[in-house]
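1st attempt posting a full record on here, be nice pls
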Amino acid sequence: MLPDCKDYTTLWSLAKLLRLFFDLKDLRTIFENAGGYTFLKNRLNKEIDFCLENPNMNEGVEYYIKINYTLNFKQIFFLKYILQLFLTIINLNPCDEIKNKLDNSILNTLNKILLNINTFGFTLVSVGLNIVTALLYKEPGFFEILKKAGTISIVLDSFQNIAGSYSFLWLASTEVVSAICSNKDGLQDFISKNILHYLFEPLKNVELAKDLIGGPHRDYIRVLEEMYNDHLELQKSLEDEFLKILNDFDRGEYEQNIFMEDKNGNYFDNEFKNWNVKELPDSLASVYDYTNVGIVNKMIIMTLQDCNWNRVIQNLNIEFVVKSIFKEGIPFSFLYSETFMETLYVFRVDVKKLLNREKVLKVFLEIINN
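the predicted structure (as tokens):
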């Protein structure tokens, strides 16, 4: 049925069903003996080439949400499940079998996906990156295979473009970079490309930070910690980049809105464009966490909470950091926000043993008096 079918809804359903079969070794053996792997490889290669030859199949179609691909969304789903089948093959089979199944044609197809993010979209590119990561962690020998195929260079040369500003794609990009650095030659390639500063983009980009906060940020911070702890060659550069953001990056001003408060305790009434003293309900307590400045501050503080590297803490411009948070226009409900709790935790528990307590106290007293 699969070879002759042209309906992508049916195709993606079949591909999804195959994934369930792969969990059972006997069914995988039957699939392999029937030439299933060869068929999947040929079908994937054919579909990707067809997409590149006909990149505007979505032209004229109206969507109610912003899309990041030019293909038919049904085709996107079909390709996604096919790629995930190859990811499953990598995870379930020994290295020798993988090398037999994933030949140069598959790696070339993978490269085409990574090089054409505007056509294939974030979902397919992220699955492609996950395949590269899985291969690199499966066995050290796969690094040379991927480098020879040009995949390593594509990932590093296109990191900024591939990473984008969506959490799942960003995480896939940072995971694959971390995997590349686990190889000695890969680490040198990463250093030579001078792209380390892009790893801290979530601490500057409010849209990316907004997408990461609430769950995926833990994976992002874990990757930073792993790269710092596993690679002595990167530690100073990671510290420098983090310090640059902590000590110099301007988070911006608080937006004028109904939750904004002046130094006299009045709040801004957006409807009448003036300041009032009327009380607001407690249900608005967490609004600080949803302002642009609050989102960036929260992302920075949560990263500092786990990545409290000694040299960073010792060279922290505590006055700049604190005043970036406690400044005019801060929403009245900041004391009830998650960001406040994170900030309190950092200064009370994580880094107080390294900070100059007298200096910290002086900064806070100055802010209170003003």
